[in-house]
Write a structure and sequence with these properties.
The two termini are 33 Å apart. This protein is mainly alpha-helical. It contains 18 helices and no strands.
Length: 444
């Protein structure tokens, strides 16, 4: 077997953690507190939202670590569902991930980046800033793994550094800090078991989406069994600490009355921390945070298309790599889809129901760990055994319970969005049938 060296050696632990952190931390944590305050006023309950959401994400991450170190192939849920259940399930999951799972959120994050910068520098076009960011980052990630991994590590380090600096400023620069009330009280504990807490938890779970990002590059990690569980667990735990810290600072810096129902809680808190120039400073900060978010999705998402290209002759063009073994065609294909979303602004319609379909993806994949345990791992005895989920079977059961409850709530409370998601899945199965028929014809 040829030993990989240099750029061919794949991604290391720090890059894998950076992919997880960058995929998770977008704008959600800077916008959702205002809506949570409409139903909850207890500081303890509000912070517990982010703790519960984080613990759930960690349970999912630990389970995915076993799936990834057992199956050992890039592609995330595409690889998992194809192996555990049926290639049709993997195909549908893969195309949903590649489009509404990555391309549409990439477009949303890029246009949000452009919007923040153009609000500070009005002469700049938000749309063309978004286009430029996607094109630039696609070029970086389509070059070499060294350049790709290096940019992801540094941009994510900058993101974490900016968030920590903001939290530190919120602790030391606020002239009139508010009492947050982090200790449990009778009213705070009762709020945790209220309907408002349950509804808010749904939106918190969206802010934690992306904890599974490292599984999309499993096949390109230097040592998946060692790196994958560490990257998923460490990245998710780090994000949970950042989220709790940010929300504590928001509540400490600004009066709750100013935050209730507001989308721009980050701007409001920044105004109390930094004064009149706080909004501009926050706009630039959020724009910089989103660079690593877009970068991580441009890095991870195309690996799904690359895997599909290797499995289905109809899409074999997506399998092509550059001289360094980087799936450049898949990267530029996803970039093209993202640019179409940006220029037509059609991604907003798709994102309405993407949460349901992606949630169903992770639910089925996590449940697959029970199937794998029953079958036994497909790893030869001569190879290193896969990582085993810490706390099994309780850990995956917690994730399944919370995610299943969330999906059930969407089915009941948002039947239109759930119906659109199920319709998209049905279309995916139809495309799979056509693809398989065409592949059989090509094989003759």
């Amino acid at each position: 077997m040829r030993t990989r060296t240099g750029d061919e050696a794949g991604f290391g632990l720090h890059t894998a953690i950076a992919v997880v952190v960058a995929n998770m931390v977008g704008t959600g944590v800077f916008t959702s507190l205002g809506f949570q305050l409409q139903d909850l006023r207890s500081g303890f309950a509000l912070l517990m939202l982010w703790v519960v959401g984080g613990v759930t994400a960690v349970c999912g991450a630990l389970t995915y670590a076993e799936l990834g170190s057992t199956i050992r192939r890039s592609g995330g849920e595409y690889a998992f569902l194809s192996h555990i259940y049926h290639p049709a399930g993997g195909f549908v999951s893969g195309w949903i991930s590649a489009t509404i799972g990555f391309a549409a959120p990439t477009a949303l994050a890029a246009i949000t980046f452009g919007t923040y910068l153009s609000s500070v520098f009005p002469t700049l076009s938000a749309t063309w800033l978004a286009v430029g960011l996607v094109v630039l980052l696609s070029g970086v990630h389509a070059s070499t793994r060294r350049a790709s991994g290096g940019f992801q590590r540094w941009s994510t380090t900058l993101k974490v550094g900016l968030i920590l600096a903001f939290c530190a400023a919120g602790l030391f620069l606020v002239a009139e800090p508010r009492e947050v009330g982090v200790l449990p009280t009778t009213s705070g504990v009762s709020s945790v078991f209220s309907g408002g807490f349950a509804v808010s938890l749904i939106f918190v779970s969206y802010s934690y989406s992306g904890w599974n990002a490292a599984t999309y590059v499993t096949g390109e990690l230097r040592d998946p069994r060692r790196i994958l569980p560490r990257a998923l667990a460490a990245g998710t735990l780090l994000v949970m600490l950042l989220y709790v810290g940010l929300n504590y600072v928001f509540l400490r810096a600004a009066p709750q009355e100013e935050l209730v129902g507001q989308l721009q809680v980050g701007y409001i808190a920044a105004g109390h921390i930094f004064g009149p120039r706080g909004a501009d400073l926050m706009g630039i900060t959020l724009a910089l945070l989103l660079v690593s978010t877009v970068s991580a999705m441009v890095l991870a998402g195309p690996r799904v298309l690359h895997a599909i290209g290797g499995d289905y002759p109809t899409f074999r063009l997506l399998r092509r790599e550059n001289a360094r073994g980087v799936p450049a065609v898949a990267i530029f294909t996803q970039a093209g889809i993202s640019l179409a979303f940006i220029l037509t602004e059609s991604f907003e319609t798709i994102l309405v129901f993407s949460g349901f379909t992606m949630g169903l993806n992770t639910l089925l994949a996590t449940a697959g760990v029970f199937v794998l345990r029953r079958r036994g791992p497909p790893v030869p005895a001569s190879e290193t055994p896969p990582y085993r989920t810490w706390g099994y079977p309780v850990t995956p059961a917690i994730f399944l319970a919370v995610t299943g409850w969330t999906l059930a709530y969407i089915l009941i409370d948002r039947p239109l969005e759930a119906g659109l998601g199920l319709g998209l899945i049905a279309v995916g199965f139809a495309i799979y049938a056509v693809t398989r028929a065409r592949d059989r014809a090509l094989d003759r």
